[in-house]
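Name: GntR family transcriptional regulator
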Amino acid sequence: MTSLNKSVRKKSKPKSPNQTQDDIVYCHIFDAILEQRLPPGTKLNEEALAEIFGVSRTIIRRALLRLSLEQVVVIRPNRGAIVAEPTVEEAKQIFKAREILELAITELAVENATPEQIKECRKLVEEESAAYALEDLGRGIRLSGEFHLKMAEMANNAPMLTFQRSLVSQTSLLIAQFESGHQSNCSLDEHTVLLDAIEAGDKAKAHTLMVEHLSHIRSKLNLDAEDASNDLHVVFSNVIKQKS
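Structure predicted for GntR family transcriptional regulator:
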């Protein structure tokens, strides 16, 4: 049994009545990527995945296409799909775009959020907290992303929601790849107070809280270190210095 086979079966979850086979495959692969059980650059073999999940390659292709549209998977012509591996510079650009969009979304959310949307967001925060309590990192990160998508829905601006969907998925991958210590659950209280400000119609406070929230997320990402090198002379430079 391959390591991919083992990891997917290990994390197997019961099927929800509302989930299609496409959804199940998508969620399993997304969780495995976010939890780094499928590290950046891993080849996603369609035949192996079809055997693992007991579905057709057509379903696997649809799930991989969905992940590629969210830019957590890269589909290479004639070479198959791999897990995306953004560079540090690409990660910085993604996060900067996310910062700009989130602030605009927050202001519009204050103006347009409905009580029902606020209630749905609070439920997401509770589910996120439960996921982290169970040490289900992939689900926790995904629920955090869904919280921010729900905020984009509150903004009532379709183009922003579309843009946010892509950025949230990419940011989730960045958190899984670059976060130091995987302490994402510290954002739970920040989500709650942000919702309180939106519900109160306090645009200035909501804006400030979002700035602080994004700053905390950014501070946990190790985007300032130099890229690792595959040059053996660089990797073992300390040994070379000791010999000289």
